[in-house]
Amino acid sequence: MKKLFLFCLQTSVMFFSQLSFATSEGFNVLGENSRWAIDASTRLTHNLDDDNNAFTHALGLDIHKVFSGETSDIGTLVFQPYIVKINNYENPPFTFDDGNDTELTWRIANFNYTALSHGQFNIKVGHFEVPFGLEYAKDTNGTLRQFTFSDRGIKGDWGVSVNGILPELDYEIALTRGSGNDIRSKGNPHIFSGRIGTPSNKNIVAGLSWFTGDVLGKSGVIQRKKFGIDATYYYYQWEFSAESSVGSTNNNDTVNGFIETLWMSPRESVSVYAQLGYQSTELDHVASNVTESTSYWLTGVQWLIPNGFDISAQYKHKLKYTATTETDSVLNIQIRYRI
Amino acid sequence: MLNKITSLLILITLHLFIASQANAAFCSLRDPVSAIQILYEKGYEYRSVVTLITEDDRVAVKQKLSFTLHQSEVGKHTLYVLYKDKKHAGFLQARSEWAKWGLVEIAWGINVDRSIKGFYYQRCRSIECNDNTIQSINAVLQNKSFSQLQALLSEDGETLSSEGQSAFKIAPQLALLTLHSALKTLAITDISWKEDIDKIAVANK
After folding, report:
1. Residue B198 phi/psi, 5° resolution?
2. Among A205-214, A321-330, B60-69, which range has the highest average pLDDT?
3. Handedness of CA B85, A118, A106, A13 (dihedral sign)
4. Which of A14, A44, B28, B120 could hold A139 in an S-S bridge, CB 3.0 to 4.6 Å?
5. CA distance A316 to A208
6. Whole-number average pLDDT of chain A
7. CB–CB of A273/A260 below 8 Å?
8. pTM for the whole thing?
9. Range A2-338 has CATH code 1.10.760.10
10. Which of A304, A220, A211, A297 is nearest to A254 (CA)?
11. What number of other Cβ atoms are within 10 A of residue A49's Cβ?
12. With contacts defined as CB-CB under 8 Å, which chain A residues touch B100?
């Protein structure tokens, strides 16, 4: 598998170096209105509770192409396949067979058909971010900084959505398979989700989201229902975000809360953020209404270096935890490079 | 080990030959749908034309103005060509400008004759960027040509001219930033998309 990973790395680099030279001479194999990049990253995950180091190496393509007619755009293709190799994970993500595995993963891979109403009513098919809360509203593709997708057990999924931008609101409503990276039918997973928000270009942005369905995970299908509200306020170099949701997991009531403060340098090359998260879950809804809760804080920094490098670090500290939930204190360091 | 070193060397060599791209993934690219709805209202279609803004283009802008695009703006950018009833009706381009507090993204509506139709802040995190300020700056810039806009700037391009000072009573610093963006946008549109614009003009004759 290691050899395969290196082979893929070298082949991709050679292929795209040829593509680049072709582009500079005016010939582009992807055609007009296209962009592409190679995205490579290495991430160290140090679990402070177990004193374990795990690694994630990712190499992927990022292709963006707009298909156009004579007088209007028809749709946009975004295609981001990644080869991801993990090493020494004690508790690997669901996509991987074990803690030392290599898999083809999909970040975003979809076609958004935009010709119906010039951006107001589009139809998207493929793999995309499940529309819910801050995770959907902000770009966290390939970054250490994430929001609340772990509450729902899924970030990206295969399916279909309607989406668009109207004068006073942005929206996306999706029906997806519920199995994440791969299309799997075990346990008949499915998710109906959506977010309706105020325009994302304003300095105050708010949204309402819902998420209902059966999500496929390591231990089989988990029934989840969420109803959430999120808000962000941008003030010069500061960004304040909050999200709250109520719902249920396998019929046990849940409450989630999340806040974040982010500061960016004037040239936006450095961003520093701090997050606080809280989850409360009923132990057994049928037997009693006893709940248990977990909470954490984390802080992170991202440094965008000119010429495509990006170095980031993040430390997550558990505040309150229980035996039934996995909330370890973790240090992450990532180096990423986009050509 | 040798394979790893070879891979690393290939990556570094490749990097020396290729202009780097922005750090953000392309899924974060968004069409300026809100700006089109506000600046062009209903009944308009748009078509994307992506081109590569080169270092030579930056130099060419510098020859037309006393300032130019930031280095980070070299790369692929989109010009949106607007149509109404299948006839060419204008352009829209989003450009970024650095303010003291970070990036300001401005979507520019451009008339067929390359005068300014209007603008819309796609991202401006100052409390000054409110509807009143936008309206007052828009009122000055609307339908002005490149040379008329230049007259609002001092000769070195760093401050407002006396004409500019009297025109922009509200938020003069933000107006100066917006004026810089307008001039750069018109200049780079004519330079980097020249061939595309010529083709559109021929098709609409």
Report:
1. -60, -40
2. A205-214
3. positive
4. B28
5. 27
6. 90
7. yes
8. 0.89
9. no
10. A211
11. 11
12. 266
